[in-house]
Amino acid sequence: MTHPQDPQEYIHRVAIDAEDNRIGKVSSVYLDDQSGQPLWLLVETGLFGTRQSFAPIHGARLEGERVVQIGRAHV
Asked: What is the pTM of this model?
């Protein structure tokens, strides 16, 4: 599992689910207030990216320019 040193490296990557389906594009990373560790990815979904869904960063891995999401996205 590959994790970037800087959580901002997730931004603008395509989020893919475990079955290789495109979820959307990562637009933000949310950090834990106390530890500063990344917890959630905000993913733009829908035809024109007009919807947004949260996906847990735990279990995600980088594969090139893609973020493969093992966990389930939350709307």
From this structure: 0.80
